[in-house]
Design a protein that fits this description.
Layout: E1 27-29, H1 40-49, E2 63-72, E3 91-100, E4 115-123, E5 126-133, H2 146-153, H3 164-173, H4 178-185, E6 199-200, E7 205-208, E8 214-223, H5 232-241, H6 245-255, E9 261-270, E10 296-305, H7 310-315, E11 328-329, H8 334-350, E12 413-415, H9 425-433, H10 436-450, H11 456-469, H12 471-480
Antiparallel strand pairs: 1-12, 2-3, 2-10, 3-4, 4-5, 6-8, 7-8, 7-11, 8-9, 9-10
Helix pairs in contact: 1-8, 2-3, 3-11, 4-9, 10-12, 11-12
């Protein structure tokens, strides 16, 4: 339910002045979507948001990258027909970009922030991008809230300072963020290096095999270097003395032949389980229990080559979760559905309509399309080839065998929230899994982050969320802030 006062004359509107009826939920075909392109408010928010910064990335501006390869180590062909996963021993070249999320291009590497984990596989069927983070969940579960969320992480429009009031006001009014907030404020909120953290696809995706049978899938990259994190005081010292610490560490490790590696595992869920699982499997603020859906090994990623030119390769690299190959498809995850549009749109703005013709983004598969002209068209621009389809002159034509697998949709088109609103069980389970020392540091990090908040109302609202996840969690945060857990 929206927290805005429905009787207030101060109505939220679109850029043309039309009132916005729902700013919390995208317009979907039934409760599970997919998201409808007729949701003009969602498209306007995302399109405008992508154009708010020039020229650096709106999010994930500060990052480092490396080349490498992905090698299949286990047969998963019964789950997916994706060619690059088709046989054990097959190697596919890839490029990865690690990043912080909220900071600007010159910000410090060792801040408390999620880390981007974006992988581009140069497959024979075209590029496949897996654009994830170092956490298995996210702060929100509907893309319509993404511009608002990131605004809270950026700078105040008057003071140009970070604004903890906005951060905690938004989180306290968006209880779905609690799981990710708990991870962020834990020891894993500041990785020691990019090499010493896991990576996750975070979203649920769909794999389809050669017989057309589908399964739901989640990706887990497990670091072979082991998990290491930074103490908050050490991280602050490094931020002041070497703000490019993670960038330097990755480059130096590869330069001296200490090639970092990750094992890729997946969780597989039968399609029909989505209707009965105790959490909505498409809600990116939730995880699937590994007891219910164990990890299955897929392959190994090794980074063995540094970029020759940072701008040409790392800065101009463009990733989109919409870059699929045959055998891998989207799910009804509402956050994912919004990203399918927003990421490619951001690249068309930031780098240009022809960003995929740049060497770092160019697929190894031959490109045959009717896209012509545009700024910075540096290739042959299609020459004299046929530039439309259908045609009678031997130009490229559609490939019916590569259509996505059909899926059923039902219900009324409406701005619909997820059916499940349990934002506390998994956050509480995570808190209880931590050791006493880890809990102490988690609470200290939360208290330290919330102390600058100027309004007790915001603090109390957030304390109530912690308490619902675990009474001890809420009580300890309240005590740290010199407040009482709200009686309600």
């Amino acid at each position: 339910m929206s927290t805005s006062n429905q009787n207030s004359p101060n109505k939220l509107t679109t850029s043309t002045g039309a009132p916005v009826g729902d700013n919390q939920n995208s317009l979907t075909a039934g409760p599970r979507g997919p998201v409808l392109i007729q949701d003009v408010h969602l498209l306007e928010k995302l399109a405008h948001f992508n154009r708010e910064r020039v020229p650096e990335r709106v999010v994930h501006a500060k990052g480092a990258g490396a080349h490498g390869y992905f090698e299949v180590t286990q047969d998963v062909s019964r789950y997916t027909k994706a060619a690059f996963l088709s046989e054990v021993g097959k190697r596919t070249p890839m490029f990865i970009r690690f990043s912080t999320v909220a900071g600007e291009l010159g910000s410090a590497d060792t801040v408390r922030d999620p880390r981007g984990f974006a992988v581009k596989f140069y497959t024979e069927e075209g590029n496949y991008d897996l654009v994830g983070n170092n956490t298995p969940v996210f702060f929100i579960r509907d893309a319509i809230k993404f511009p608002d969320f990131i605004h809270t992480q950026k700078r105040h429009p008057q003071t140009h300072l970070k604004n903890p009031n906005a951060v905690w006001d938004f989180w306290s009014l968006s209880p779905e963020s609690l799981h990710q907030v708990t991870i962020l404020m834990s020891d894993r909120g500041i990785p020691a290096t990019y090499r010493h953290m896991h990576g996750f696809g975070s979203h649920t995706f769909k794999w389809v095999n050669a017989e057309g049978k589908g399964v739901w899938v989640k990706y887990h990259f497990k670091t072979e270097q082991g998990i290491k994190n930074l103490d908050v005081n050490v991280a602050a010292e490094i931020a002041g003395t070497n703000p490019d610490y993670h960038t330097e560490d990755l480059f130096n490790a590869i330069d001296k032949g200490d090639f970092p590696a990750w094992k890729l595992y997946v969780q597989i869920m039968p399609l029909e389980d989505a209707d009965t699982y105790r959490f909505d499997p498409f809600d990116v603020t939730k995880v699937w229990s590994q007891k219910d859906y164990p990890l299955i090994e897929v392959g190994r990623m090794v980074l063995n080559r540094n970029p020759e030119n940072y701008f040409a390769e790392v800065e101009q690299a463009t990733f989109s979760p919409g870059n699929f190959v045959s055998g891998i498809e989207a799910s009804p995850d509402k956050m994912l559905q919004g990203r399918l549009f927003a990421y490619s749109d951001a690249h068309r703005y930031r780098v240009g309509a022809n960003h995929n013709t740049l060497p770092i983004n160019r697929p190894v598969a031959e490109v045959r399309n009717n896209q012509r002209d545009g700024q910075m068209r540096a290739d042959g621009n299609g020459g004299s080839s046929t530039y439309y389809e259908p045609n009678s002159f031997g130009g490229p034509t559609e490939s019916p065998k590569d259509r996505i697998s059909p899926f059923e949709v039902s219900g009324y088109a409406n701005s619909t929230a997820y059916d499940h609103d349990d934002h506390y069980t998994q956050a509480g389970d995570l808190y209880r899994l931590l050791s006493e020392d880890e809990r102490t540091r988690l609470v200290a990090n939360v208290v330290g982050a919330m102390k600058p908040v100027e309004h007790d109302e915001i603090k109390l609202r957030q304390i109530a969320h912690f308490y619902k996840a675990d009474p001890e969690y809420g009580q300890r945060v309240a005590e740290g802030l010199g407040l009482q857990v709200p009686k309600a």
